[in-house]
Design a protein that fits this description.
Elements lengths: L5 E5 L3 H12 L5 E5 L15 H4 L14 H4 L2 E4 L4 E5 L4 E4 L4 E3 L2 E4 L3 E3 L12 E3 L3 H10 L5 E5 L3 H12 L3 E6 L11 H13 L2 E5 L3 E5 L6 E4 L4 E3 L2 E4 L3 E3 L2 H5 L8 E2 L11 E3 L4 E5 L4 E3 L4 H15 L11 E6 L2 E7 L6 E5 L7 E7 L2 E8 L2 H13 L5 H5 L5 H4 L2
Parallel strand pairs: 1-2, 1-7, 2-3, 7-19, 9-16, 10-11, 10-16, 11-12, 18-20
Antiparallel strand pairs: 4-5, 5-6, 8-17, 13-14, 14-15, 20-21, 22-23, 23-26, 24-25, 25-26
Bound molecules: flavin-adenine dinucleotide (FAD).
Flavin-adenine dinucleotide binds next to helix 1, helix 8 and strand 22.
Length: 407
């Protein structure tokens, strides 16, 4: 009887929150316990570098559901509680408050934590990282008009913070170690175009430059770069990636390799433990290889998919990865996960900030990036998923509807 069973979700973030809801809508009538170390109901993180940071929206707008939703659905949400250990054989969790909690099935949605700087001066006051609501609120306070803000790391988080900081009237510099922005996830040309957008909005973008140390008396005042240049800083925001929170799984003897290793149903090397979201390294049948994704889409849909699988519905998680970012007047969208490609095909003029670019491998599209053309990205996902052969000239021709090529 399901009623006698207990499903526990460790990590009450985006994937965990959606999974809890999905268990109930799957008619699972057993006990659901949703344990999270943060003191908020499950929430979405994208606004933390955008609307919440700019001050356009309040904290509640980030919540997946109002706090009282969970009790209403018979979901025991335990905020401010950490899972300290898993005894897999005994099917038992050790919680931070000393409680031992038995489970029949466990879902790990522990996400990731920010990678920290280890440079001299890294522990000075005024050095910020951005992962949770409290981080966003603290950074917002630092983004006073005319404040000098130095951002270390030119990835999505750093660039979105740069955009929000300019909106609040700050002077902003971004320091990126690689020669181009987004060098790990996109073609160099996309990074150059994005650097131009930031430059046009008054952000100083410094690429191919490292950081030597942070200076100040108790509080950060300067960032000293590897080329000797010192930048004045009222605050420093660091965005140099995350580390998956996979230690609980590793200590329990589960397979871990760049996140918790799961199969296409989200099951770990223990049949009664699943994982989803940023922490899950999963096979993607469309791409034909494993990925660990850090995206809204993956948290949302894999969370739901794995919850259904925990209830016995055997549905593989198979989606074209999709990601978006908002920076100034650019809505950047990416679909697919290009491992390798042999050429790019552009549709629309890159200089117009309204284009889609196709990453081609032979005669199929393996990924796309777009500025301000989200609708086209939605259609291009079908081309990627179905591996539809398509001619470069047709893709580039704006007179031909993309929809007609994707049929
Ligand atoms: C600032 C920011 C902006 C973003 N913008 C975008 C965007 O524009 N587009 C996009 O596609 N994606 C974006 N993302 C990525 C997206 O938000 C994440 O991929 C998503 O939140 C991952 O969800 P998750 O549930 O896997 O992890 P999380 O949301 O991180 O949730 C994990 C939760 O588990 C808790 N936890 C960890 N360990 C334990 C433990 N031992 N016990 C109890 N609780 C624990 C954590 O405290 C956390 O609350 C952004 C992320 C950030 C940080």
């Amino acid at each position: 009887m399901a009623r006698d069973r207990t499903f526990v979700i460790a990590g009450a973030g985006h994937a965990g929150g959606r999974a809890a809801e999905a268990l109930r809508s799957q008619d699972f009538d057993g006990r659901i316990v949703l344990i999270g170390e943060e003191n908020y109901p499950p929430y979405e993180r994208p606004p933390l570098s955008k609307e919440l940071l700019r001050g356009d929206d309040g904290v509640e707008r980030t919540f997946l559901n109002p706090a009282e939703f969970y009790a209403g659905k018979g979901i025991e949400h335990r905020p401010g509680t950490r899972v300290e250990g898993i005894e897999a054989e005994a099917h038992r969790l050790r919680l931070g408050d000393g409680e031992a909690l038995d489970y029949d099935k466990l879902l790990l949605t522990t996400g990731g934590r920010v990678r920290r700087l280890t440079l001299p001066g890294a522990d000075l006051d005024g050095v910020h990282y951005l992962r949770g609501i409290d981080d966003s609120l603290a950074i917002r306070k630092a983004l006073a008009a005319d404040a000098s803000i130095v951002i270390i790391g030119g990835g999505f988080i750093g660039l979105e913070v740069a955009s929000s900081a300019r909106a609040r009237g700050c002077k902003v510099s971004v320091i990126e170690l690689q020669d181009v922005l987004l060098g790990r996830v996109a073609d160099a040309e996309i990074g150059r175009l994005l650097a131009d957008v930031h430059g046009a909005h008054g952000v100083e973008v410094l690429t191919g430059i490292g950081v030597e140390r942070l200076e100040g008396e108790g509080r950060v005042r300067r960032v000293v770069c590897s080329n000797g240049r010192a930048l004045d800083a009222d605050a420093v925001i660091v965005g140099i990636g995350i580390i998956p929170n996979a230690e609980l799984a590793e200590e329990a003897g589960l397979e871990v390799d760049n996140g918790i290793v799961v199969d296409v149903f989200g099951q770990t090397s223990d049949a009664d433990i699943h994982a989803a979201g940023d922490v899950a390294n999963h096979p993607n049948p469309i791409l034909g290889h494993r990925v660990r994704l850090e995206s809204w889409q993956n948290a949302q849909n894999q969370g739901v998919n794995v919850a259904r699988n925990m209830c016995g519905v055997r549905v593989p998680y198979a989606e074209v990865p999709w990601f978006w970012s908002d920076q100034f007047d650019i809505n950047l969208q990416m679909a697919g996960a290009p491992e390798s490609w042999d050429r790019l095909v552009w549709r629309g003029d890159p200089a117009s900030n309204r284009f889609i670019v196709f990453y081609m491998a032979g005669d199929v599209v393996v990924a796309v990036n777009a500025f301000n053309l989200g609708r086209e990205v939605r259609i291009a996902k079908f081309l990627i998923e179905r591996k539809t052969p398509v001619a470069d000239a047709d893709l580039a021709d704006e007179g031909i509807k993309l929809r007609d090529l994707a049929r």
